[in-house]
Amino acid sequence: MIYPEKISAKKGSKIIKLMLLASVLVGIILIVMNRFLKPHIPWAMLSTAGIIYSWITVLYAINKNTNIAKHVLIQTVAISILSIFIDYMIGFKGWSISMAIPITIITANVTMFVLTIVTHKKYIKYAIYQLILIIISLLPIFFIFEHMLQSIILTIIAISISVINFIVSLSLCMRDFKEIMVRKFHM
Question: Which of 71, 121, 172, 180 is the 20 to 30 Å CA partner of 149?
Fold first, then answer.
């Protein structure tokens, strides 16, 4: 069995710091956008809280060395349902479908990407969860065709990031996938 090269602690730390800086910048941009676009609805705070929650999950996964991809997927679904509920409770303005869910999906994909790069486990474990994440990210296409979205930009970005993340993950785990196929189907 061929294993991927381990990332040195110094390189892994550098990647985490870079991704953390990117997350902080995204949070700041979201808050500024919220102030100018919809100041009466605090959607940026919910999105920023999701980013913070994702980082807690990533840091926990790295420190505890556990397979956290399933938890990330469950949390993505839970946050999406929660944001739709909050949007519905304040009069359904549509921000949950056009902004919160795509941002949650993007955050989940970034989390999966960081987990895939930083952990030294087989990439194939994360590829299955990323496939499910792609399916979840494709669900808003229904809302695009029904013209229920205020803006489709974030939805398209979320779908694109999901597909790219899955392709990268598959390319990283192709050897393991081939070995599993040979072992299971005696090819």
Answer: 71
